[in-house]
Write a structure and sequence with these properties.
Radius of gyration: 26 Å
Shape: globular
Order of helices and strands: HHHHHHHHHHHHHHH
Strand content: under 5%
C-alpha cells in the first residue's frame, strides 16, 4: 500500500544513484572527501534528532510504516544538501540548476493555466482548493525570486528574459491556486532579501532603489482597490487583511488551524523535552471541524508542519531546527557578501530565500513532509553552503590577500633580523 516501507519513489532512486555514482568516482580518483558545507553542524544535529524520534516513536508504540513515511522527507532534505555540496564543483555546474528551476516551474505555471481553462470550460467553480496542488504556490515564488534577483543583479541575460516571460503565467496560476500561505511566504522572504541585495550589490543600488520605489507605488494603488475585493486577483490583499479582518471562508480556515495548533501544543506538552516520537497520531482534545473529510494522514501529518516538528522531537530537536535556520540566515548572508560573481549571487540569494519561505509556508501547509519542497530546499541550501568555493573572483582575491599577508610577514621578519644583528664597530687595521 501507500505506506509500504520498501516502496521507493523516483526521487529517492535518483538521489541514491547520484550518491552511489559520486562515491564510486571518489574511490576511483582516490580522493575520497566529503564536503560538509557551512551548515552541516546543526543540520546533522537536527537529522540525528529526527532519527532518534523515529526510533523513540516506534519503540513506544508508534506505527513503523507511518514513522518512516513521516521522517523520510527530512532525510531527503539532508541527502540533497550533501549531494549539492559534493557534486557541484565549479561555477558552471550551477547553471543547469537555475535552468531546471526556471523551465520546470514555468511549465508548471502553463499547466496551471491549462487546468484553469479546462475547469472554466467544464463549468467547474474555482474553489479554495485551487487549480493545482498547494505546494505549487511555493515553487512559483521561487521563479519570482529568480526573476527578481537576476534583474537586480543584471546576471545571465537568458535567465533574465526567460524567467520574465514565464513569471506572469506563474503569478496567474498562483492567484488561482488561492494559497494565502504562498503569499505570506513570498512577503516574509522578500523583505529581508531586498535589504540583502542592497548590501551585496553595491554597484546596482540604483536598480534596487527603483524597485523599492516602484513596489511602494504599486502597493499604494493596489491595496486600497483590492482590500474588499473577492476575486483571485485580490488574494495578496486578502492575505494581509485576513490577519485582522478575515472573510467567512478565511475565518473558517483560520479557526481550523487554530484548533489544530491547540491540539498539537497539548500533544507536545506530554513529552516536551524529546517529543512523542514519530508514527503516533496527535491528540484531538478539541474537535477539528471537517477533519473527517480528509484522509487518515492528517491525524499524523497536520497542516502546521513546524509545530509538527516541535511535537515529534521536542524542545531539543526543535532547537536544532531553529539553529539550522539561524545559521543559514547569518552565515548565508556572510557568504553572499563575500561572493563577487553575479550568477553565484543570484543562486545564493535563492538559497537564502527558500528556507525562509519553507518555514513560513510550513506553518500553514505540510511543507516539511513534501519531498519535492524539501529536496529543492536542501539543494539550494547546499549550493549556498559552498558558494565561496565556486567563486573564482573570491578565491583569487583571497589568494592575493594571503600572498600579501605572507609577503608583509616576511618583510617584517627581515626587518627584525636586520635590527637584531650586532653593530659592527670599525676597528683599526694593523699591518
Amino acid at each position: 500500500g501507500a505506506l509500504n516501507p520498501f516502496k521507493f519513489s523516483i526521487a529517492e532512486g535518483v538521489m541514491l544513484l547520484t550518491f552511489i555514482s559520486w562515491i564510486i568516482r571518489q574511490i576511483a580518483l582516490r580522493e575520497f572527501h566529503i564536503e560538509k558545507g557551512a551548515f552541516y553542524g546543526w543540520f546533522a544535529a537536527y537529522i540525528a534528532m529526527v532519527a532518534f524520534g523515529a526510533g523513540h516513536g516506534i519503540v513506544t508504540g508508534g506505527d513503523a510504516s507511518m514513522a518512516l513515511w513521516e521522517v523520510r522527507s527530512q532525510f531527503h532534505m539532508f541527502l540533497s544538501y550533501l549531494i549539492a555540496c559534493n557534486v557541484i564543483k565549479e561555477k558552471k555546474d550551477v547553471m543547469p540548476v537555475l535552468w531546471l528551476a526556471v523551465i520546470g516551474i514555468g511549465l508548471k505555471g502553463l499547466i496551471g493555466i491549462y487546468a484553469y481553462l479546462q475547469m472554466i470550460a467544464a463549468g467547474i467553480m474555482i474553489t479554495e482548493q485551487g487549480v493545482l496542488t498547494h505546494e505549487e504556490s511555493l515553487f512559483f515564488n521561487v521563479l519570482i525570486f529568480i526573476c527578481f534577483v537576476s534583474w537586480l543583479s543584471n546576471s545571465d541575460r537568458k535567465i533574465k528574459w526567460v524567467s520574465l516571460i514565464l513569471v506572469p503565467f506563474c503569478i496567474f496560476t498562483a492567484l488561482q491556486n488561492q494559497r494565502r500561505s504562498g503569499i505570506a511566504a513570498l512577503i516574509v522572504a522578500m523583505v529581508p532579501l531586498i535589504f540583502i541585495m542592497w548590501n551585496i550589490l553595491e554597484g546596482r543600488r540604483l536598480s534596487v532603489k527603483k524597485f523599492i520605489v516602484g513596489f511602494a507605488i504599486f502597493n499604494a494603488l493596489y491595496l486600497p482597490i483590492a482590500w474588499n475585493a473577492q476575486g483571485a486577483w485580490a488574494l495578496p490583499a486578502r492575505a494581509i487583511r485576513s490577519n485582522t479582518d478575515p472573510n467567512e471562508r478565511d475565518a473558517s480556515s483560520d479557526y481550523y488551524r487554530m484548533v489544530e495548533n491547540i491540539n498539537l501544543k497539548a500533544t507536545r506538552d506530554r513529552s516536551p523535552i524529546i517529543g512523542i516520537g514519530y508514527g503516533k497520531p496527535y491528540d484531538m482534545l478539541i474537535y477539528q471541524p471537517g477533519i473527517e473529510q480528509f484522509d487518515a494522514f492528517l491525524k499524523y501529518l497536520p497542516h502546521n508542519s513546524i509545530m509538527w516538528i516541535w511535537m515529534r522531537i521536542g524542545h531539543v530537536g526543535f532547537f536544532c531546527f531553529i539553529m539550522l535556520l539561524a545559521t543559514v540566515c547569518i552565515k548565508g548572508t556572510q557568504i553572499l557578501k563575500q561572493t563577487q560573481d553575479v550568477i553565484l549571487q543570484t543562486i545564493g540569494a535563492i538559497g537564502l530565500a527558500v528556507p525562509l519561505m519553507l518555514f513560513t509556508f510550513g506553518k500553514f501547509d505540510m511543507a516539511m513532509v513534501n519531498y519535492r519542497i524539501v529536496i529543492m530546499t536542501g539543494s539550494f541550501m547546499g549550493i549556498l553552503a559552498i558558494l565561496r568555493k565556486l567563486d573564482p573572483k573570491s578565491n583569487e582575491a583571497e589568494a592575493t590577500a594571503v600572498r600579501a599577508a605572507s609577503n608583509a610577514a616576511d618583510f617584517e621578519e627581515d626587518e627584525r633580523s636586520t635590527m637584531n644583528e650586532p653593530i659592527r664597530r670599525n676597528t683599526p687595521i694593523s699591518f
